[in-house]
């Protein structure tokens, strides 16, 4: 039997903590989840969790980086599959699933908890910038090559991310808030830029 190196054990422990924390944050929210409860559920001491991540906020940021990449990748897959005529329906389905996953609540709770800490606020800004770049990739997948300049694509991606953040805040107090009005607004644009087929 091969014995794991110290680094491999630390990596395995980190992955376990990330998965357990992800489940707890999405299920219970950021505020209600403690590092002690994550450590207990993962079968570790709180010290192992602290040594792997440093703080609850850093752990949540790591979880959110993965969630963000997965969610935007899932959106890209959704809009890239099927006929261009129903792309907005696929976006609507993705948005409903993303909003009900617990992701939005985690984002908002962490944002409120970290906004007065310059280091964590900077990390949040980096994540938002990354989300815009990921959204740029999705928008590019929708438009025919050379049909739209890079700046316009970036503006559209940023507007979509900004709208999603605003909608997430609205949904936190009004579960009936939906992306439908935004999707109706962009429907002519999507029809104009996507190849028919």
TrEMBL record:
Residues 11-71 form the HTH tetR-type domain. InterPro entries: Homeodomain-like_sf, HTH-type_TetR-like_transc_reg, HTH_TetR. Gene3D superfamilies: Tetracycline Repressor, domain 2. It comes from the Bacteria. It comes from Aeromicrobium ginsengisoli. The keyword Ribonucleoprotein does not apply. Pfam families: TetR_N. One of its GO terms (molecular function) is transcription cis-regulatory region binding. Residues 34-53 bind DNA. This is TetR/AcrR family transcriptional regulator. PROSITE patterns: HTH_TETR_2.
């Amino acid at each position: 039997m091969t014995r794991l190196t110290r680094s491999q054990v630390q990596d395995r422990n980190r992955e376990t903590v990330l998965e357990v924390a992800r489940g707890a944050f999405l299920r219970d929210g950021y505020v209600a989840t403690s590092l002690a409860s994550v450590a207990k559920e993962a079968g570790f001491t709180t010290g192992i969790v602290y040594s792997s991540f440093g703080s609850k906020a850093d752990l949540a940021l790591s979880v959110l980086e993965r969630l963000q990449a997965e969610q935007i990748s899932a959106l890209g897959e959704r809009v890239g599959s099927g006929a261009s005529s129903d792309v907005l329906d696929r976006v609507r389905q993705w948005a409903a699933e993303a909003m009900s996953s617990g992701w939005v609540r985690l984002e908002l709770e962490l944002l409120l908890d970290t906004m007065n800490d310059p280091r964590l606020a900077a990390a949040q800004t980096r994540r938002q910038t990354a989300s815009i770049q990921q959204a740029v990739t999705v928008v590019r997948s929708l438009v025919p090559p050379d049909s739209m300049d890079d700046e316009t694509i970036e503006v559209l991606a940023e507007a979509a991310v900004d709208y999603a953040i605003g909608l997430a805040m609205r949904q936190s107090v009004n579960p009936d808030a939906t992306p439908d009005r935004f999707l109706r607004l962009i429907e002519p644009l999507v029809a104009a830029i996507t190849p028919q087929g």
